Amino acid sequence: MSSEALLSAHSLSKSFGSLKAVDAISLELSGGEIVGLVGPNCSGKTTLVNLVSGLYRPDRGEVLLAGRRVTGMAPHQLARLGLNRTFQVPKPFHTLTVHENARLAAFYTRQSPERAEEALEFVGLTPLAERPAGSLNVGQQKLLDLARSLATAPRVLLVDELAAGLGPRELELVAEKLLTLAGSGLGLVVVEHLLAFLNQLTSRVLVMNAGMKIYEGKLSAAVEDRQVVEVFLGG
């Protein structure tokens, strides 16, 4: 394990009955780095994110944040320590306004209200701040989910298929935002099916299949790996 790693997940495993959803996966992330997490449906990507973010407790393995063991901590505890995530399906408080959603996230993690306003400005939702979150379209709700996470002042952000369902222009804007965040020193793990989108963000990917890591390295080399092509690209 690198002493410089901002996030270290070591040999994480999780089973649901006889199904081994994650099988001894390890991952390291440095500040300012974006790592892609890819694989076919049901390969274990979101389960891995759930383990790292505290939504699930691992059967085995450990998670360290800046060298501190945080395995088994609840999501709200991890958020206060600087580790947060977005969800594949956004989960805002639908009856609260966009602004109230962001401010609640900042308040709960002891951040200033200004942090919430900055997050909304960053993702471009300030003009919609007084609208109920439930009135937003899917793309806007994904941006609100990102803003809520940013309002907690994370050091590590796990991004679960933020690009899914977005149009070409929205994809370009989201890529720019994520690169800006990495440029500020934030470490990001990006779960994504769209390899062209991921290629704009990072050269390093971890590929999963059936709960196991089958490849880790450069994205350009992954698409030439026979096992990756067979299980992920349908070769």
Give an overview of the whole structure.
The chain is an alpha/beta fold. The protein has a domain at 1-75 and 179-235: 3-Layer(aba) Sandwich (Rossmann fold). It is 34% helix and 26% strand. It has helices spanning 45-52, 75-81, 98-108, 113-123, 138-150, 168-183, 195-199, 219-222, 226-231, and strands at residues 7-16, 19-29, 34-38, 60-65, 68-69, 83-85, 156-160, 187-191, 204-209, 212-218. It has a 6-stranded mixed beta sheet with strand order 6-7-8-3-9-10, with helices on both faces. The protein has a 4-stranded antiparallel beta sheet with strand order 2-1-4-5, covered by helices on one side. Helix 3 (98-108) packs parallel to helix 5 (138-150). The longest helix is centred in the C-terminal third of the chain and has 16 residues, at 168-183. The radius of gyration is 17 Å and the shape is globular. The two termini are 34 Å apart.
End-to-end Cα distance, whole Å, is: 34 Å
Low-confidence stretches: none
In spatial order, strands of the major sheet run 6-7-8-3-9-10
**Strand residues, percent:** 25-35%
SSE arrangement, N to C: EEEHEEHEHHHEHEHEEHH
The level-1 CATH class of the domain at 1-75 and 179-235? Alpha Beta
Number of helices: 9
Q: Which shape, going by the Cα principal axes?
A: globular
Helix content: 25-40%
- Count of extended strands: 10
CATH topology (fold) name of the domain at 1-75 and 179-235: Rossmann fold
Helix/strand structural class: alpha/beta
Mean pLDDT: 92
